[in-house]
Amino acid sequence: MSNKSPADWYSIRGFHVYSRWNIGRNYPPPTPPPTPPPTPPSATLLVYNVTQGNAFNLNGNIFTLDTDLPNFSYKSTTITSIPNGSIDDTDIGISQLPNPTQIIKATIGNSVTSIGEGAFTKCSSLSSVTISNSVTSIGQAAFALCTSLSFVTIPNSVTSIMDAMFIGCTSLSSFTIGSSVTSIGDSVFSKCSSLLSVTIPNLVTSIGIAVFSECILLSSVTIGSSVASIGNFAFSECTSLSSVTIPNSVTSIGDDAFVDSGLTTVTIATVNTLGISGSPILFFFGATNITVTYI
Question: Which residues form the signal peptide (predicted)?
Answer without folding.
Answer: none
